[in-house]
Design brief:
By secondary structure, this protein is an alpha+beta fold. The protein has 3 helices and 4 strands.
Length: about 110
């Protein structure tokens, strides 16, 4: 009985480590994706003097890898005449908005 309890404890510890690393990896990839998309939108704004209306073309030009592309598909792009917002939902179903000045999700 003691032998099985020890194995279950190790599996529980491994589960906690894997869960924590999944959350950290998700945050890291979403930060990189948001940063790349934000820089691409700002670059478009500099070249064309307006904010883009087509988010799909921005995603294509942002040089995203496969995993970042999956994250980019989850991002909602909201624009006005002079500003834009990137919104997403994290793993805990909490809405996050990308802050362009700090370059991170709030």
């Amino acid at each position: 009985m003691r032998k099985y309890a020890e194995k279950i404890a190790w599996f529980g510890f491994l589960n906690i480590i894997l869960g924590f690393s999944t959350l950290k990896s998700y945050d890291y990839v979403s930060e990189r994706t948001g940063l790349k998309l934000s820089k691409q939108i700002d670059l478009f704004k500099i070249h064309h003097s307006n904010i883009p209306t087509d988010f799909d073309s921005i995603k294509e030009k942002a040089d995203l890898n496969f995993i970042e592309g999956i994250f980019a598909n989850r991002i909602q792009y909201v624009f006005t005449e002079d500003n834009y917002e990137l919104k997403t939902v994290n793993l805990r179903n909490k809405e996050r908005i990308f802050d362009k000045e700090v370059e991170e999700w709030k």
